[in-house]
Amino acid sequence: QVQLVDSGGGLVQAGGSLRLSCAVSGRTFSTYTMGWFRQAPGKEREFVTASGWSTGSTYYADAVKGRFTITRDNAKNTVYLQMNNLKPEDTAVYYCAAGRYIGTTSKESDYNYWGQGTRVTVSS
């Protein structure tokens, strides 16, 4: 069974930075596509970014492109989301996800495992 534990959320002022972490249990972390999603208050969960295991490719939602960076450390079974120049509209609960998918994908149904979420609040 694969388990994901998100951490690193908090309160930050607009323009600030945060780094989220997602620790993944299991020996096959390197073969999972990893993604980050977020859910703002009163809104549906939306895709943020993904990192494909087979190609090393990354994919970003337009709203975060140029500000957020996904990286993964296969030796530590951890994926990170570096968030810079944060805006109030980035306020949400952020979830990491893992899926047996070749390449990158923004579809929630392609992800098999989910973290519990970590809250990010950006004040103006």
Low-confidence segments, given as residue ranges, are: none
SS class: mainly beta
Largest sheet, strands/sense/barrel: 7 strands, mixed
Estimated helix fraction: under 10%
The Cα radius of gyration reads 13 Å
How many DSSP-defined strands? 11
Q: Mean pLDDT score, rounded?
A: 93
Q: Report how far apart the termini are.
A: 40 Å
Shape: globular
DSSP strand (E) fraction?
over 45%
Please trace the helix and strand order, writing H or E for each element: EEEEEEEEEEE
Explain what this protein looks like in three dimensions.
- With 124 residues, the chain is mainly β.
- Helices cover 0% and strands 48% of the residues.
- The chain has strands spanning 4-7, 10-13, 18-24, 33-39, 46-51, 58-60, 68-73, 78-83, 92-99, 113-114, 118-123.
- The strands form 2 sheets. Strands 2, 4, 5, 6, 9, 10 and 11 form a 7-stranded mixed beta sheet that branches. A 4-stranded antiparallel beta sheet has the order 1-3-8-7, with no helix packed on it.
- A hairpin with a 6-residue loop joins strand 4 and strand 5 (46-51).
- The radius of gyration is 13 Å and the shape is globular.
- The chain starts with a strand and ends with a strand.
- 36% of the residues are buried.
